[in-house]
Structure formats: C-alpha cells, structure tokens
Amino acid sequence: MTNDGEPVTSANTPCPGVDWDARAASFDAEPDHGLRDPEVRRAWAGRLRGWLPGRAGDVLDLGCGTGSLSLLASEQGHRVTGVDLSPAMVTLAREKLAGRDAVFLVGDATAPPVGEQRFDVVLVRHVLWALPDPGRALRHWAGLLRPGGRLVLVEGVWGTADPVGILAERLTALLAPITGQVRVERLSDDPLLWGGEVADERYAVVAVTG
C-alpha cells in the first residue's frame, strides 16, 4: 500500500496486467509490506496482538504476499498457513519463515487449498475489496473457522477523485448474517502503520463466529 493512496494488493486480487511474480522482489519496499522499519514493525505487531487470540492457535493468512504478517503471527506463538497465488511471493514467504511452524501454499485466497483443516483465525489484508463477490468469499472463509474462531480483515477505501475499496459499513453488513461479534478498528490515524501520514480510510474488522 503506497502512502499516496494507490492500493497495492496481493496476487489474489484481479489487477489486469500485473505480474505479481515480477513484483515479488520489490514488494517489501512498501513500509507496510516489508515491515523493515522497526517502528512500523512494532506498530503492526501491537495491532496483531490485539486481533489474534492470546493463546497459541492456527492462523490462515490469505493473500499472504511475502509473509510479513505471517512472521509476526509466528513470533507471537501461532502456527501459520499462508496462501498466495504468486509462486514467487510464496517462495519469499517460505524463506522469511524458514525454520518456523509455518506452511505456505500456492493457491487462490477465495478457495484456499487447505482441505478439511480448520483454523482459529483467518487473516486477510487488502484482498477482499477487489474481489468480484466479497460476500461469497466471506462465507467460505467463515466456514474454515473452528467454533469461536475469528476473521481479521484489514481493508480500506483509497483515493478521492475515483476511490476504490470497500467501506467498513458495507463489510460489517456482509458479515452480519455469518458472524456474531464484529469490531471495527480505524487505522488511518496511526501513521506508524503506513510509514507516514495517510488521508484515506483504512481500518480493520475483527469478526468472531457465534
């Protein structure tokens, strides 16, 4: 995600003409992708700690990119499965989490190749907004959760003249029939997350199944 409001998504989003394998090597250059700045990394780690369960659990990171959030989750004691459509992104994620309790798979975030495995958390950042049927994806993801599991969705609306994204109100409405408790956390006013000030809408939704 760039600071000027242009959304940068994962390989799982329909961006015609984008070669995600070619972009993998430079993907982590964005402050909130690579989390190379210690302050940005601490900011995301703090947020993630508040979104994920306090006990160790199984986290499914969809559209995981190079695995930066997967690494934070692993450092907090969770077992991670990451899925991305780009083989190059998955290769970098595997390298980043080498030796940790983490598995990375090449596949579509909307239908991740995890078989009958179920998770305590489905974590998705900057993927849902660009999907043609976000409601269908949410229903499928909710079905991958164990009882009491949670969806953690980081999304936003970017740009002013021709904004793209998904409003928090629309996302919570889509979640209402399939989850129980839903919490919205505004992220736009925390420049440490993005490596600088942002003017558009960025937020996280944490939805716990009934």
The residue-averaged pLDDT reads 91
Structural class, by secondary structure, is alpha/beta
Q: What is the molecular shape?
A: globular
Strand content: 15-25%
Please trace the helix and strand order, writing H or E for each element.
HHHEHEHEEHEEHEE
Oligomer: single chain
Radius of gyration: 16 Å
| DSSP summary: helix tally | 7
| Residues in helix, % | 25-40%
Poorly predicted ranges: 1-6
**Biggest β-sheet, characterized?**
8 strands, mixed
N-to-C terminal Cα separation, in Å?
A: 32 Å
Provide a descriptive summary of the structure in words.
The protein is an alpha/beta fold and 210 residues long. It is built from seven helices and eight strands; from the N terminus they run αααβαβαββαββαββ. It has helices spanning 20-27, 31-34, 38-51, 68-75, 87-96, 134-142, 168-175, and strands spanning 58-62, 79-84, 102-106, 119-125, 145-158, 164-165, 182-186, 201-208. Strands 1, 2, 3, 4, 5, 6, 7 and 8 form an eight-stranded mixed β-sheet that branches. Helix 6 links the parallel strand 4 (119-125) and strand 5 (145-158). Helix 1 (20-27) runs parallel beside helix 5 (87-96). The model is unreliable at 1-6 (pLDDT under 50).
Search tags:
eight-stranded mixed β-sheet; single chain; disordered N terminus; globular
Break the fold down into its secondary structure elements and pairings.
Elements: H1 20-27, H2 31-34, H3 38-51, E1 58-62, H4 68-75, E2 79-84, H5 87-96, E3 102-106, E4 119-125, H6 134-142, E5 145-158, E6 164-165, H7 168-175, E7 182-186, E8 201-208
Parallel strand pairs: 1-2, 1-4, 2-3, 4-5
Antiparallel strand pairs: 5-6, 5-8, 7-8
